[in-house]
Amino acid sequence: MAKTGDPRVTLDDPHSFFMPGTNGRGVLLVHGMTGAPAEMRLVARLLNKRGYSVLAPLLAGHGADEAEFRKYRWQDWQDSVEAAAEKLRAEVDETHAAGICVGGKLALLAAHRNPGTLRSVALYSPCFSYDGWAVPFYYPLLSRHIGWLAHVPFLQRLSFSETPAMGIKDERLRRLMAGMSADGVLDDFPGSGVVEMYRLGKLVRRELPQITTPTLILHAREDDLSNPRQAEYIDRHIGGPHALHWIEDSYHMIHVDRQHRHVADLTARFIEAHSRSGVAATPAFETHDV
């Protein structure tokens, strides 16, 4: 059962949560690979205070352990997002989405595949491969050859350790995230996840010119896991109206780090600018049509 006082929204795991809102708009918040809905709570609370209904689902294979994680593919994660979007859609007048890293790509693909379901999407720290300043040298090396390494069974069985910074610049917030294993966040990420991330990213890259969903791209200039050029790539290639904003005082986990309030504010403003009611009283975005 979802953690909510509203009995209409039910989910099949103890980690997902729903926060009923008051303004008729819903936001689907999608966690990252090996993450869990708990990491979305800071942004969720801020959006909910603005009146938004918020649903944060657990992706398939997540929330348990590495053995369970390895049983699932990116298509299963995608199914989780699309099913959650339908649940949220039944509760509100219009739906939007935001997701961190892989979660953002899943949300964007869900919007593209199901026109009219999600009116806008915010991408937090988009990432096709781990190539930030803090990752070990062999991560980018593996990424460059992941196409053929994906067929080598040993990679699927490997596990990779999180970087010391955990994608978070603020030490207090880093300690908070470090204690989230009980909330379903995995300490390490299995090699199978790297493979599935590559396969999902390959599809999204191919689809970008055809994607017309209004898209907000938020990326930290100091991202320790994903080089800012990955956000710039999306900015250059996506086919619909979009805006790119830089986060100046955070690492990869911008929805958790020092500027999570700014991230929530930018997300809300973008949603308002692209809502059905056309509310544009907030400062306008520099939205590009490619």
UniProtKB/TrEMBL annotation:
Q: Give the signal sequence positions.
A: none
SUPFAM superfamilies, A to Z: alpha/beta-Hydrolases
* One Pfam entry name: Hydrolase_4
Location of the Serine aminopeptidase S33 domain: 27-258
Q: Which InterPro entries match?
A: AB_hydrolase_fold, AB_hydrolase_sf, Esterase_lipase, Hydrolase_4
Known Gene3D superfamilies for this protein? Answer: alpha/beta hydrolase
Keywords annotated in UniProt: Hydrolase
The EC designation for this entry is 3.1.1.1
Enzyme class of the recorded protein, top EC level: hydrolase
The molecular function GO annotations come to: carboxylesterase activity
Q: Which GO terms describe its cellular component?
A: membrane
Q: What is this protein called?
A: Carboxylesterase
Question: Lineage, please?
Answer: Bacteria, Pseudomonadati, Pseudomonadota, Alphaproteobacteria, Rhodobacterales
